[in-house]
Design a protein that fits this description.
Blueprint: H1 13-21, H2 33-46, E1 50-54, H3 57-68, E2 73-78, H4 82-85, H5 90-95, E3 98-102, H6 112-118, E4 128-135, H7 145-157, E5 161-166, H8 169-176, H9 181-184, E6 189-193, E7 204-208, H10 210-222, H11 231-243, H12 245-263, E8 268-270, E9 279-284, H13 290-299, E10 310-313, H14 320-331
Parallel strand pairs: 2-3, 2-4, 4-5, 5-6
Antiparallel strand pairs: 1-7, 6-7, 8-9, 9-10
The protein binds pyridoxal-5'-phosphate (PLP).
Pyridoxal-5'-phosphate is lined by residues 56-58, 61, 82, 135, 165, 167-168, 193, 195, 204.
InterPro entries: ArAA_b-elim_lyase/Thr_aldolase (IPR001597), Low_specificity_L-TA-like (IPR023603), PyrdxlP-dep_Trfase (IPR015424), PyrdxlP-dep_Trfase_major (IPR015421), PyrdxlP-dep_Trfase_small (IPR015422)
Keywords: Lyase, Pyridoxal phosphate
Cofactor: pyridoxal 5'-phosphate
Length: 335
């Protein structure tokens, strides 16, 4: 039972069969029918002109940023944004793109007033602000649809592009009980991780218009991300989007179960308002030795991260019963 992340999910049985039987070709030549079919289907399904299969979410975000921005341009993002904080500074290192982070609000949004103040005037002293990048879900929290609409109006008004790091955007759609297009419709570009809660072994998608995706395809090759018989991966990726979205609902229910269970234990404290999808953040009482806790749980076949707040993530390979087992073990620490 691995609660560290939803990236630990094993491919489903159906994925393994589809991978074994995938018809493949050399995708750098554009010859992989399974990749081509996934890209065409994904573009249509999410309301974009084109799509690109990438090796990871990090690569998809980097391609997105580098396709929107040139050297010396700037993108606005959250201080907690994955593509600012957790991607090795890739946009700056590899794209010469300057990030302009803004403090995230408690609900994960970025204050439009603060963003407006951060846009650089057209003056030779400044980088040129080109893009706003949002993230949904962010820390397991869902950005409200009304906010997305405001962000779209804001970017139109200021002539900025709007990108969504949608690594877990399906968790947002499931939590809101809306079609994915009700979220994607606001963005010029969007990424989706197929390898998190959706259980594919490898891969993400970048979505956008044709010119944007053509540019991203060129940069992907430059960065060494051109893959050959990658249809093996796309076969699983297609099933991630067609077969695994329903599972997210179960993951969200299990997250609620875990969060409420933790709040019954004196050593743990979860802000339930923040538990909106498959991620539970709990503070841990001072007297608990996290290293010891980690080691003890490991002996029982339970893997958790180390941290306070402690992040616990629900996914396809964690059942309701597993949640009860974890809660029972943690109860012993609370005495
Ligand atoms: C995981 C994640 C990524 C990066 O995906 P990788 O496939 O791990 O590179 C990007 N953005 C967000 C919000 C993520 O959670």
């Amino acid at each position: 039972m691995d609660f560290r992340s939803d990236t630990v999910t094993q491919p489903t049985e159906a994925m393994r069969i589809a991978m074994a039987n995938a018809i493949v070709g050399d995708d750098v030549y554009g010859d992989d029918p399974t990749i081509n079919a996934l890209e065409i289907w994904a573009a249509e399904h999410h309301g974009f002109e084109a799509a690109l299969f990438t090796s990871s979410g990090t690569q998809a975000n980097l391609l997105g940023l580098m396709s929107h921005c040139e050297r010396g341009d700037e993108y606005l993002c959250g201080q907690q944004a994955h593509n600012y904080k957790f991607e090795g500074g890739g946009a700056a290192v590899l794209g010469s793109i300057q990030p302009q982070p803004i403090q995230n609000e408690p609900d994960g949004t970025l204050c439009l007033k603060a963003l407006e103040a951060a846009i650089k005037p057209d003056d030779i002293h400044f980088a040129q602000t080109k893009l706003l990048s949002l993230e949904n879900t962010i820390g397991g929290k869902v950005l409200p649809l009304a906010y997305l609409k405001q962000a779209r109006e804001f970017t139109h008004k200021h002539n900025l592009q709007l990108h969504l790091d949608g690594a877990r955007v399906y968790n947002a759609a499931v939590a809101l009980n809306v079609d994915i297009k009700e979220i994607s419709c606001y963005f010029d570009s969007m990424t989706i991780c197929l390898s998190k809660g959706l259980s594919a072994p490898v891969g993400s998608l970048l979505l956008g218009n044709k010119a944007f995706i053509n540019k991203a395809r060129r940069i992907r090759k430059m960065l060494g991300g051109g893959m050959r018989q990658a249809g093996i991966l796309a076969a699983a990726g297609k099933l991630a989007l067609t077969e695994q979205v329903e599972q997210l609902k179960v993951d969200h229910e299990n997250a609620q179960l875990l969060a409420h269970g933790l709040n019954q234990l004196s050593a743990f404290d979860v802000n339930l308002e923040q538990v909106q999808t498959n991620i539970v953040l709990t503070s841990v009482a001072e007297h608990i030795n996290m290293m010891q806790l980690q080691r003890d749980l490991r002996k029982d076949g339970i893997i958790i991260s180390n941290g306070n707040p402690l992040r616990l993530v629900l996914h396809n390979d964690i059942s309701k019963n597993d949640v009860y087992v974890l809660l029972e073990k943690l109860a012993a620490y609370t005495a």
